[in-house]
């Protein structure tokens, strides 16, 4: 890190578009010397002289350039970043079952490829289990409270109802975990998080976890973000709109989830009957002479339709529903972040009010009120940026999801069509060669 | 089939009407009457239509006609009537006899029955059938005057009673077995088909709910195009048409379910004939034996009468002479009867078998047609599904 970098302008009242580009030459003098147009894009720590800390005193992780404005600038750059200029790739695959005396569990291989300076090596391959992912998520929530952290697939599964070790379950989970890490990788702030780095690289994650716990116990404070219980005066329109949107969105998702489940259920009941239907034609064929072949053909055809329907239902269950659920979880966690933001704002307003009531001669704004204001502005900017990114991702994800669903249905009908078309020649009179 | 009636005459059951009247016990009843329209087919004249004759008949009259035909032509596989009560229905269809859909399907079934009879080489020539189509009043009396009810063998009513036939005709035994199996398999098929229709209906209707989700507040929704909604609603509604068409297929199967019964009836009649023949032959043999015993005085077979006459006194030679004469007469009668029965039996087998062959060909042809149209229906359904989802995919791609 360089010397005392100058702070970038606060995002406060200015709109996203008015932010000067960090690489813009016109204001290069104002930029800290730490700025170099390198692929790593080391952005200076802004607002570094004002320490960012959570209301309960826990220092905010500032090892990564987690600032409002730098983030916004980074966001602009992001649009120009395409696959070739990405410098961090993470994949989750190769699930393996581990049987120990105390327990049985699954680990997944997490592979990282990167050119970033924060990583000592260009490649890493580690094994992680669900607990580790859960730990990572909690750490990210603690250390980046102003950001939206992507959701994890559900932690608890009802024993006896779902087989935790079945191929389908493991594969569904693997896909979700892969998505989780990829979303973090794509995030300009979260991807630089120290815990994320350790998660991707450490051979022994448990040792690190213990270290972290020791540190916290030293501080003797709960890491959880404590809500101050302040009442909010007025929510900025944009956040109110986001809140309303999320409510509607969650409701709609819930409805779609229910309908999808209902469709799958009806399809499976239809399948049960269809499975009995096909063989009856075969029995009939056994009685007949001339009609034997066509009836067998119809029986086989219905059998093929059964298989096609089975595949369709499986796809719905394994691909469609999990993504819906994921977004439901996402909405929930976003609402929580919105609440936190409200809290931060409420605290600031309360402090401001307290100062106004003191009626001091010199209306000197005390430093802690200023800190609050910064916190609010920081939070707002981070959240806004994350929301935009989320909206884009959501649109893409749903577009892909729905198109995928349409594709699967088309494939199902095409399979059935082929099956029935093959029956017709069996029923047509053969040319009189007898 | 050049001279079959169907070629000479257009026959339709064109209307159905609800009526009220008084039944045999003078109680008020509601029933449906069907309008039978007939018109001679003029092969020469163009543009000149022969006049249409019409009369009304109710279901019970159709039944009477069919009973008459069954009894009068026991060796023929008589076409069946449509079902008396709605059976094998899936939930949307009503099982009520007065339900307009049921009445409509029955109307079609009755027309089909008349056309079948009119195209049968033997049945179409029947006078009673012709009168049924053309003579409004007094038809019932005419039928009863034929006295066919007397010919009807009440033993046939006991469907499952077995007659121990010593030398069963293998072909008929196999055919009876086949008709039993056919009835069983088609019943099973119709039952499962009804359940399949029920479930398919359920699937389509839930898809209709998708449309509603998308239509609400599309700016906040996941898809902004209202086309998406229409597609799903149309998709959900299309199931009604599909299942209605499938009912027609079910009706075709039902006809052959009932045809199987008619086939079985022919086998049963043959069985009875054979049984009667064997009984008659047996009777004749025992009479001949008795005759012999009386003539020679030897008692070969034990009989209580013989024993009692031995115990309580012998018969006078005159008495024996009288008995012999009676027996000889009976034997002669019996032999003639047996000859006739044998001839009848052989005729029956010959003509029955000819009709059975005709029926087999008709069955194979009809069922192939039915299966083809069923497959075509399924194909069209698949194509519609592909279209709907392709359109949906288009909409999604614009998100």
TrEMBL record, chain A:
Residues 1-10 have a biased composition (Pro residues). This is Sorting nexin-30. Residues 1-72 are annotated as: Disordered. Signal peptide: none annotated. The keyword Transport applies. The gene is Snx30. Belongs to the sorting nexin family. One of its GO terms (molecular function) is phosphatidylinositol binding. Residues 86-207 form the PX domain. CDD domains: BAR_SNX30, PX_SNX7_30_like. Pfam families: BAR (PF03114), PX (PF00787). The keyword Protein transport applies. Coiled coil: none annotated.
From TrEMBL, chain B:
One of its GO terms (molecular function) is phosphatidylinositol-3-phosphate binding. PROSITE patterns: PX. The keyword Plastid does not apply. SUPFAM superfamilies: PX domain. It comes from the Eukaryota. GO terms for biological process: positive regulation of autophagosome assembly; protein transport. GO terms for cellular component: early endosome membrane; plasma membrane; SNARE complex. Keywords: Protein transport, Transport. Residues 12-139 form the PX domain. Pfam families: PX. The keyword Transport applies. PANTHER family: SORTING NEXIN-4. Belongs to the sorting nexin family. This is SNX4 protein. It comes from Probosciger aterrimus. The gene is Snx4.
């Amino acid at each position: 890190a360089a010397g005392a970098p100058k702070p970038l302008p606060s995002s406060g009242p200015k709109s996203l578009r008015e932010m000067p580009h960090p690489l813009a030459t016109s204001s290069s003098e104002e930029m800290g010397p730490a700025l170099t147009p390198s692929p790593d894009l080391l952005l200076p720590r802004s607002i570094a002289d004002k320490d960012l800390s959570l209301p309960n005193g826990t220092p905010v992780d500032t090892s990564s350039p987690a600032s409002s404005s730098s983030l916004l600038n980074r966001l602009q750059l992001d649009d120009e970043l395409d696959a070739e200029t990405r410098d961090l790739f993470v994949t989750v695959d190769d699930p393996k079952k581990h049987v120990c005396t105390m327990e049985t569990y699954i680990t997944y291989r997490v592979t990282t490829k990167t050119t970033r300076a924060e990583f000592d090596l260009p490649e890493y391959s580690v094994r992680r289990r669900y607990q580790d992912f859960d730990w990572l998520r909690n750490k990210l929530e603690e250390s980046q409270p102003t950001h939206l952290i992507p959701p994890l697939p559900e932690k608890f599964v009802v024993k006896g109802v779902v087989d935790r070790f079945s191929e389908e379950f493991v594969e569904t989970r693997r896909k979700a975990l892969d998505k989780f890490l990829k979303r973090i990788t794509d995030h300009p702030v979260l991807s630089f998080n120290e815990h994320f780095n350790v998660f991707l690289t450490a051979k022994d994650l448990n040792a690190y976890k213990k270290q972290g716990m020791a540190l916290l116990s030293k501080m003797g404070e709960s890491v959880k973000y404590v809500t101050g219980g302040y009442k909010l005066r007025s929510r900025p329109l944009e956040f109110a709109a986001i809140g309303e949107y999320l409510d509607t969105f969650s409701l709609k998702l819930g409805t779609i989830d229910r309908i999808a489940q209902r469709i799958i259920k009806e399809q499976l009941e239809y399948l049960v009957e269809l499975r009995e239907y096909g063989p009856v034609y075969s029995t009939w064929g056994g009685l007949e002479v001339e009609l034997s072949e066509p009836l067998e053909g119809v029986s086989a055809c219905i059998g093929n339709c059964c298989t096609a329907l089975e595949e369709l239902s499986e796809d719905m269950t394994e691909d469609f529903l999990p993504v819906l659920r994921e977004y439901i979880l996402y909405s929930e966690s976003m609402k929580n972040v919105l609440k936190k933001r409200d809290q931060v704002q409420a605290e600031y307003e309360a402090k401001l009010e307290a100062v106004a009531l003191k009626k001091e001669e010199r209306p000197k704004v005390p430093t802690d009120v200023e800190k609050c204001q910064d916190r609010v502005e920081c939070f707002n900017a981070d959240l806004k940026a994350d929301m935009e990114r989320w909206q884009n991702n959501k649109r893409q994800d749903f577009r892909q999801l729905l198109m995928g669903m349409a594709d699967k249905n088309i494939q199902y009908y095409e399979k059935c069509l082929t099956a029935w078309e093959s029956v017709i020649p069996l029923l047509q009179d053969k040319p009189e060669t007898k | 089939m050049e001279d079959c009636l169907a070629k000479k005459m257009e026959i339709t059951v064109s209307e159905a009407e609800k009526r009220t009247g008084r039944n045999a016990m003078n109680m008020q009843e509601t029933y449906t009457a069907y309008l039978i329209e007939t018109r001679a087919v003029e092969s020469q004249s163009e543009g000149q239509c022969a006049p249409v004759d019409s009369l009304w008949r109710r279901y019970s009259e159709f039944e009477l006609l069919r009973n008459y035909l069954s009894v009068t032509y026991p060796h023929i596989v008589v076409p069946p009537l449509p079902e008396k009560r709605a059976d094998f229905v899936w939930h949307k269809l009503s099982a009520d006899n007065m339900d307009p859909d049921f009445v409509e399907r029955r109307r079609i079934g009755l027309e089909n029955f008349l056309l079948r009879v009119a195209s049968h080489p033997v049945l179409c020539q029947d006078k009673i059938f012709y009168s049924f189509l053309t003579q409004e009043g007094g038809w019932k009396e005419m039928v009863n005057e034929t006295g066919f009810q007397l010919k009807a063998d009440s033993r046939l009513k006991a469907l499952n009673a077995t007659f121990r036939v010593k030398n069963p005709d293998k072909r008929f035994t196999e055919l009876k077995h086949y008709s039993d199996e056919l009835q069983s398999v088609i019943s099973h098929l119709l039952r499962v088909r009804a359940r399949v229709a029920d479930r398919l209906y359920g699937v389509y209707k839930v898809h209709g709910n998708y449309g509603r989700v998308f239509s609400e507040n599309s700016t906040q929704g996941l898809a902004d195009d209202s086309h998406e909604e229409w597609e799903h609603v149309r998709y959900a509604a299309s199931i009604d048409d599909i299942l209605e068409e499938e009912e027609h297929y079910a009706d075709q199967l039902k006809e052959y379910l009932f045809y199987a019964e008619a086939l079985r009836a022919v086998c049963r009649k043959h069985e009875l004939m054979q049984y009667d023949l064997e009984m008659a032959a047996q009777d004749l043999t025992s009479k001949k034996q008795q005759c012999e015993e009386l003539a020679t005085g030897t008692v070969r077979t034990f009989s209580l009468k013989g024993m009692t006459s031995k115990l309580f006194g012998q018969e006078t030679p005159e008495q024996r002479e009288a008995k012999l004469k009676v027996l000889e007469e009976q034997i002669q009668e019996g032999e003639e009867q047996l000859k006739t029965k044998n001839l009848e039996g052989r005729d029956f087998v010959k003509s029955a078998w000819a009709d059975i062959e005709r029926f087999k060909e008709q069955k194979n042809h009809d069922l192939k047609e039915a299966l083809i149209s069923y497959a075509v229906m399924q194909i069209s359904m698949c194509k519609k599904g592909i279209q709907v989802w392709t359109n949906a995919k288009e909409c999604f791609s614009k998100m």
